[in-house]
Amino acid sequence: MLKAIKIVLVGTSHPGNIGGVARAMKNMGLAELCLVAPRGKFPHQDAAFRSAGAIDILEQAKIYDCLEDAVADCTLVAGSSARSRHLPWPLLNPRELAGRLEQELAHTEHRIALVFGREDRGLSNEELHLCHLHVHIPCNPDFSSLNLAAAVQVLTYELRMAVLATQEKQAMPEAQHFGTEWDVPFANSETLEHFFNHLEHTLIDINFHNPDKPRQLMSRLRRLYMRARPDTIEVNMLRGILTLTQQAANKNAATKPPESN
Amino acid sequence: MLKAIKIVLVGTSHPGNIGGVARAMKNMGLAELCLVAPRGKFPHQDAAFRSAGAIDILEQAKIYDCLEDAVADCTLVAGSSARSRHLPWPLLNPRELAGRLEQELAHTEHRIALVFGREDRGLSNEELHLCHLHVHIPCNPDFSSLNLAAAVQVLTYELRMAVLATQEKQAMPEAQHFGTEWDVPFANSETLEHFFNHLEHTLIDINFHNPDKPRQLMSRLRRLYMRARPDTIEVNMLRGILTLTQQAANKNAATKPPESN
Question: Quick check: pTM over 0.80?
Answer without folding.
Answer: yes
